Amino acid sequence: MTSNMRPLNSKKDVPKGSPARPGHIDSADCGQHAKNESCMPCNDLQQESDREQAGDTLDDLFFFNDEEDDDIDWEPSARLAENRWFCLNCTMPNLDEVKHCLNCHELKGSEVAAGYDVFKTHIARAALVSADTAPVLVSTAIGFDERMLLHSEMEMKPNPHPERPNRLRAIAASLAAAGIFPSKCALVPPREITKEELVMVHTSDHVESVEQTKNMLYSYFTSDTYANGHSACAAKLAAGLCADLASLIVSGRVRNGFALVRPPGHHAGVKQAMGFCLHNNAAVAALAAQKAGAKKVLIVDWDVHHGNGTQEIFEGNKSVLYISLHRHEDGSFYPGTGAADEVGDLDGKGFSVNIPWSCGGVGDNDYIFAFQHVVLPIATEFAPDITIISAGFDAARGDPLGCCDVTPAGYSQMTSMLTACSEGKLLVILEGGYNLRSISSSATEVVKVLLGHGPSYGTDAAAPSKEGMQTVLQVLDIQQKYWPVLVPIFASLQVQAQQGPTSSNYVNAENMLKRRMLTGGPGPVWWKWGSKRLLYEVLFEGRRPRKSKAKGK
């Protein structure tokens, strides 16, 4: 097993079948749940809560580039000085004498998910909604089960893995603190998805490879995608909750829902687990919605990484429209897929819509501008019966992997804009997001919109950055062939763009974020120098900054 996380460079590099690689003994030898068909919490949940999570190195999750040969064998964990601490909020390293995280400004040792116990005490009192309960319309339902917290990296490593159980705890604590749960939301009873449901999305070999991880203490599908003895159960619970929420929404029993689930899913393809994802929760939910009566399903993926798995699963299916907004940088940003000209195959041409940002630092205005001019016109023309949001919050301000600038108000606005697409039938599924304060505040604002609260601000002042305008024009130019509603929008924006980059309507996304970072605003410290490795090289090794060759920096 290698400790260097080298992301895949292009779609052709995506593994076609990735069985888990065992990391230790069979569970029968270690006393775990060898004879159980599915994992149970027992005492493991408390043990997991009490220990610091271990994980993989973050090298090259931000960028990858074939030209950076000197990065291939870079293992910062092997060279870091011992006098360091890792932020509990964003997982980034800091020198021991530093009291506030240089990435997110969190105080050393602060516990972000401390309010989870309040949420936990409310679970037993929450109203339940399922196909078997009385037919009373519920406004918003939440999908959650504590057993998903047992999915964690078991191999002890110097630095914590960003996809960790505290992600769910932080969001749950925020929902309880805001008075949203349990007083304003119902809870969906958990169930594990069946193999018959999973093979509608994945190959039977893939389903079996995930299932086999329950017989191992720990294992890896890729260098960044771990599993332990509880991961198969957690992945099936996540998919089952998403499927049941989708069915309840389509049937009219629930108006909308939020799936507070992990492991995430949108990188999981037909044959492979990757990018922290085991089963594709959004894809499972889409097929469950269609089984419940939905003819057309819209999936909007605003995770900062392209959902290569979801696109692969539906790229030839015109009954599922997949729209993704993500960093791309000409394929240099993980996972390398999601270019604007990836539009789907065969009957599904035009039903994959990719909005690939050309740089980091993208914020609210660019996202809302893209929603106004691409997402909503296409979605309205498509007229879905249900809208599913693959809600990764790693484009949020201060995220250690996304390096973008979307605020909770921005996520609130995007959610509000999507509520009209399918008469309010909306399912929000958690994907990525690794700054605990960012994801908890963003998710809370999204759930408030589901409950009927208005968005945090209006859409009138959504002036894009120069890079944002260029990306939207590129997408419109390609997609107008499939969606005639875009033709006049493209013509109008072309005229606007001809005013030139000096127009007061344009800002530079990266420069704007760098200026804010330099003045002490929250966010990744490496924006100050423009290189992903300087946090390690300058702080821990005393080396002078080197100019990065990574695209978009």
TrEMBL record:
Cofactor field: Zn(2+)
CDD domains: HDAC_classII (cd09992)
Record InterPro entries: HDACs, His_deacetylse_dom, His_deacetylse_dom_sf, Ureohydrolase_dom_sf, Znf_RanBP2
Protein location: Nucleus
Alphabetical list of Pfam families matching this protein: Hist_deacetyl
PROSITE patterns reported in the protein's UniProt record: ZF_RANBP2_1
Domain annotation RanBP2-type: ranges: 85-104
Catalytic activity from the UniProt record: N(6)-acetyl-L-lysyl-[histone] + H2O = L-lysyl-[histone] + acetate
EC number: 3.5.1.98
Keyword Zinc in record: yes
Domain of life: Eukaryota
Molecular function in Gene Ontology: histone deacetylase activity, hydrolytic mechanism; zinc ion binding
Major localization class: nucleus
Cellular component aspect of the GO annotation: cytoplasm; histone deacetylase complex
Region (Disordered), start-end ranges: 1-29
Record-stated family: Belongs to the histone deacetylase family. HD type 2 subfamily.
Protein name: histone deacetylase
